[in-house]
Amino acid sequence: MGQADPIAPLIPWYANGTLAADEREGVDRHLPQCASCRELLERARDRQALGASRGPAEMLEHVHTRLLVEYAERPGRLDAELRGWIESRLEACTTCREAFERLREVETQLAGASSAAAARPAGGAIANLWASTRDLLTSTLLRPAPALAYLVALALLLPALWLAGRQQGEPAGAPRLLVAHGEGAVRGTPGDARPLVVPPSEDAVLLELRTELLADDIDDPDASFELELRRGDRLLWSRPAARDEFVILDGRVALRLLVYPGRLDEGPLHEISLSVRKPGDPLDGQALFRRSFRVTEDITGGDGRSTS
Amino acid sequence: MVRGWVHAVVRGGNWRFSDPEGVAQETLLALVKLAGSGRIREPGGFQKLVYTVAKNTCVDVYHRERRRDSREVAEEFPDERPGGEEPGEELSQRERLDRLVQIFQRLPEACRQLWDWVYREGCSAAEVANRLSITAGNVRVRVHRCLEKAREIHRELESWPVAADDRK
Asked: In a 10 Å sphere around its CB, with 0-12 CB exposed, 13-18 middle and 19+ buried, how is residue A21 labelled?
C-alpha cells in the first residue's frame, strides 16, 4: 500500500461494515490486487475480534509486560503521554505496582552486582586475566573468531603467568578506591582541575570516574565510548568502554577502572579520559570525562577524596 | 554464564515464584526462540538482552501466579477457542491479540478512542464525525493516521529486540 492508495483509508470502515455500497464495491474490486490492503483488512478484523472480547478498560487494566519492563529500564525513552498513563496505572493497580517494584529491585541488584564486579579485588595477574577473559567472552559470545583467538592466546600465556605469579607472590587485599570527579564536554562542568594523587606504593587502585552524565546520555545506540590513558601527549592505551561497565551512582554515570601504579611512571602527569564516538554528531570525539592524575607520594596535588 | 544472568533476575527481585527454576527455563526457551529467529544480532548487548527477556518472563509469570492465587484464571482467560480449532492456531491468535493489546496501550489517547468507536462499537465515519463535530472525511484521515501510527508501533515490536537497542 503506498501512501497515495485511496482505498487504504476505507479499510477500517469496510471491516466494520459501515461503508456505502459504491465504496464497498470499489474495495471489493481492489482487494484481490492489493496485498497491503488485504493485510490491513486482516489486522482490522483482528482489532474487531479484540474489541468484541475486550473493551478498552480491560485492555488498559494492566500495563503490558514489555511496556512495564521498558518503563523500568529506560523511562526516558517513552513519550510523556505514555509515561503519564503508566504512572497512573502504577498508582491505581496493585498488581502492576507490585510487579514494577520487583522489577526495580532487580534493577537495583543488577546495578549492585555490576558495581561489585567492577570493584572486585585484584587477585593477582591470573585472576585479572580471568576477569578480562570473562568480560571479553561476554562481548564476543556471538563472534566465535575473536573468542577463539583469545582462548588460544590465553592457553599460551597462562603457564607463563602462573610461573610469574609464583615467583612474585600475589598482592593481597582489595585495591584502594580513588574517587575522581572530572570535567566533560556534555554539561560543561569544570570538575576538579587538581591532579588526583595515586600512591606508587599501592599494588592497584580502583579509579572511580564520576562523570556528570545522566543515564539517558549513554543510551544512544549509535554512540560508542572509548577510554584513553595518556602521559603528557603520549597515548599509553585506549580501549572501548562497554555500556555494562557503566554504573549509576547518585544519579550520574560512573565507571570503575583498575590502575596499577607500578606500571606507570612516577612523577609525570597522566590523564584518563572517556570520549564518545558518534560520526556526524557534534560531540563525536569529545571527552565526556577527563581527569588528570599523578603517581606520586606527594599529596599536595590531590583532592583528598579517596577511600579505602 | 547465561544461566547466571537469568538467575540474577529470577532470584533477584523478591518475586517469590513457586518454581524459580521453571521461570529460568522459560526464559532460556524464550532466548533460544529469539536466537532461532535470527533476531539476536548485537553481541555487545547480549547480556542486556538476557536481562530484558528474563524480566519480561518474570513479570509474565508473576501475573500468572497472582491470577492463579486469586482464582481468576477462568474469568480472565475464558476459552475463546471455537470447537475443533488447533492449539497452534489458538496460540497464534493469542499472540496476535497480545500484540494488539501492546499496540493499543502505546497509542495516543485520541487514537485509542477512535479505535474503540470503529472496531468495538462499529461506528460509521458519519457517526464518529458527529461525536467529534468534524467532517466524515476528516474522521477517515484521522483514523488512517492512527492506523499508520499503529503500523509503526507494530513494526518496532516485530523487530524487537534488535530495534529496541537500535532506536533512540
From this structure: exposed
